[in-house]
């Protein structure tokens, strides 16, 4: 006789949820530390933040949540047997991940052109650390999306899409704290 | 077509993202920036809830949806507290 537990209610594999919670804790600690250090120099943090492009980051948010929607649709398409459309949708989601990285690279290049580095101000130490770590996850996510478009078993797509949604989830918390809170 | 929960979730996420960016770009009087920050963090919490419920499928697992929602609310409250300290110091 098999017993069901509350963990059986979680969509997808349990381990992907362990990963999602772990990542949320890591980024959450980073964001809390950012705001804690800001207490020591709110004016300096505000001046440094004014050198970021809020509009560019807002556009990148739209790009990432659209990519997340495509990944979620791909899973529904695969489960309903529309394998070709699911693959195309996953590739489109990965492409938007690349668009996110292009915009992010332009942002980093703009900072470098203004002589802004990680040690310019504590704000930028956190900025590069948190957005750079997130960008590394975006790159990994693009590779994962392309892998599951190739090896397209529904369980693979579910795990790959969940990883991508985690990247989305982290960004919607990181974006307002780093770019928007003045 | 708007009956598709995923499409509605995406539209909400786009709207809330544009909304929080607009709130940040608005030139608030100095005394009102704390209110703007509160609105921005509340919108972030709503966006996170939508991603968990619709993109990650927790809408079908109410126990976990509630757990994540409460945990994220506590976390956003912590962030809000840290954000507001300089305004009241």
Automatic annotation (TrEMBL), chain A:
GO terms for biological process: aerobic electron transport chain. PROSITE patterns: COX3. Its EC number is 1.9.3.1. GO terms for cellular component: plasma membrane. InterPro entries: Cyt_c/ubiquinol_Oxase_su3, Cyt_c_oxidase-like_su3, Cyt_c_oxidase_su3-like_sf, Cyt_c_oxidase_su3_a-hlx. It comes from Roseovarius litorisediminis. Keywords: Membrane, Oxidoreductase, Transmembrane, Transmembrane helix. It is a multi-pass membrane protein. The keyword Membrane applies. It holds the Pfam family COX3. Belongs to the cytochrome c oxidase subunit 3 family. It comes from the Bacteria. It is found in: Cell membrane; Membrane. Gene3D superfamilies: Cytochrome c oxidase, subunit III, four-helix bundle. The lineage of its organism: Bacteria, Pseudomonadati, Pseudomonadota, Alphaproteobacteria, Rhodobacterales. Its main location: membrane. The keyword Ion transport does not apply. One of its GO terms (molecular function) is oxidoreductase activity. Residues 1-182 form the Heme-copper oxidase subunit III family profile domain. The chain crosses the membrane at residues 14-37, 57-76, 88-106, 126-150, 162-181. This is Cytochrome c oxidase subunit 3. Signal peptide: none annotated.
From TrEMBL, chain B:
Keywords: Membrane, Transmembrane, Transmembrane helix. The keyword Membrane applies. The chain crosses the membrane at residues 9-28, 34-56, 68-88. It comes from the Bacteria. This is Nitric oxide reductase F protein.
């Amino acid at each position: 006789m098999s017993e069901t537990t509350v963990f059986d209610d979680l969509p997808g594999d349990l381990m992907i949820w362990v990963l999602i919670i772990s990542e949320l804790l890591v980024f959450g600690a980073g964001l809390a530390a950012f705001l804690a250090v800001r207490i020591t120099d709110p004016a300096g943090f505000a001046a440094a933040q004014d050198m970021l492009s809020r509009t560019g980051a807002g556009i990148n948010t739209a790009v990432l949540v659209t990519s997340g929607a495509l990944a979620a649709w791909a899973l529904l398409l695969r489960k309903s047997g529309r394998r070709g459309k699911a693959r195309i949708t996953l590739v489109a989601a990965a492409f938007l991940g690349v668009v996110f990285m292009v915009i992010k690279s332009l942002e980093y290049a703009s900072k470098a052109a203004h002589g802004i580095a990680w040690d310019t101000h504590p704000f930028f130490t956190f900025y590069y650390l948190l957005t750079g770590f997130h960008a590394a996850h975006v790159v990994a996510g693009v590779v994962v999306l392309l892998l599951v478009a190739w090896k397209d078993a529904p369980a693979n797509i579910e795990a790959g899409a969940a990883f991508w949604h985690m990247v989305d989830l982290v960004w919607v918390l990181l974006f307002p704290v780093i770019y928007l809170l003045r | 077509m708007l009956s598709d929960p995923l499409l509605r979730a995406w539209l909400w996420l786009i709207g809330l993202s544009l909304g929080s960016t607009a709130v940040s770009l608005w030139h608030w009087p100095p005394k009102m920036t704390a209110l703007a920050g509160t609105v921005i963090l509340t919108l972030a919490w709503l966006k996170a809830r939508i991603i968990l419920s619709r993109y990650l499928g927790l809408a079908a697992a109410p126990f976990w949806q509630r757990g994540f929602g409460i945990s994220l609310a506590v976390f956003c409250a912590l962030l809000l507290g840290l954000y507001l300290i300089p305004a009241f110091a």
